[in-house]
Amino acid sequence: MAKKIAIGGDHAGFEYKRKLIQKLEDLGYEVKDFGPFSDASVDYPDFVHPLSSAVEKGEFELGIVICGSGNGVAITANKHQGIRAALCWNEELAALARQHNNANVLAIPARFVSYELAEKMAETFLTTDFEGGRHQNRVSKIACT
After folding, report:
1. Which residue out of 49, 67, 88, 135 is catalytically annotated?
2. Residue 40 is part of which domain span?
3. What is the total count of domains within the chain?
4. Taking 70 as the threshold, does the pLDDT of residue 1 lie above it?
5. How many CB atoms lie within 10 A of CB 81?
6. For 98, phi and psi rounded to 5 degrees?
7. Rounded CA gap, 42 and 44, in Å?
8. Which residues pair with 4 in a beta bridge?
9. Least C-beta-crowded within 10 Å: which of 36, 103, 109, 112?
10. pTM value?
11. Which one from 11, 49, 100, 135 is the annotated catalytic residue?
């Protein structure tokens, strides 16, 4: 069964999101677009909070959020206790975010990476597993509960 992926962001990430959805669907992923649905200026929390809630509830296995710097969407997603969003700007960071931090949301800075790199980071993030082991103890200490 295909992994269910949630994707969203803001106007600065709209074009990357649009292309990435097509690429992921071509690879066999089931993708839900949380918006925005145009490149008109929007407030990213309006899209990132619903996406993060859905990932937190287990409705989607992983999420991808995209904005200009990647910071706003990552900060917003990380307000959710069950979210571990990682801002990445290369493939190695995307892999390590999954392997060592069990990140469940990838944050992409559209104004600072090429679309081709964004696509490679997404593929790496989605196909890399959490290593567990010594990393599990650390990940278990992240939540403030």
Report:
1. 67
2. 4-14+31-140
3. 1
4. no
5. 12
6. -80, -50
7. 6
8. 30
9. 112
10. 0.96
11. 100
